[in-house]
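Annotated sample (chain length 198).
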Amino acid sequence: MYPTFLDAMTTRADARFRAAEQIGAVLFVAILTAIAAQISIPLPFTPVPFTFQPMVVLLGAAALGARLGLSSQIVYLALGLAGLPVFAASPLLPQGAARLLGPTGGYLMAYPFAAFAAGWLAQRGCDRRYVTAFLAMVCGLAVVFAGGVLWLTIASKPAVAFSGALAVGFVPFILPDLLKLLVAAAVMPAVWRITGSR
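Output written by the structure step:
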């Protein structure tokens, strides 16, 4: 198993300092996820807004690894459940716990699992090269879409068939999200090269 970028950058031997650095990194990625949610574009034909969250979730997980990547998204969801305005702004969807019960709840609840998947692959060295970094992020994105589309078939009122959920929750987003990942996949290999940490 390869060290994560966070492992390579945290060199303190004292376990207390190392734990503090890990907690700080988890909080940082959770806050970045909340910031990415605010860059939100509502679309008239779907209750799901366009945001930069998936890119941040997967990039953060690549830097932190599976366990801490998952933890960062659990913290993000916990902040939202506590009522803080960390979810994408919406005139129709409420902040707080009710957001997870709405049509976008499946995407949000999939973030920890997507982060775990992308982080797990990063810990196998997939974040060192562009192609494998992209494929690792695509795996994480697949988890996000699976959770989101399946939840749309359950949470939508009236109920939406699977084909309808694909039409409003997958088709409009897949190409823009893949384009975002084509950019994001270049970040970690470049950071590894710049820092010389291999």
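Annotation: The chain has one domain: 5-195.
Annotation: DSSP finds ten helices and no strands in the chain.
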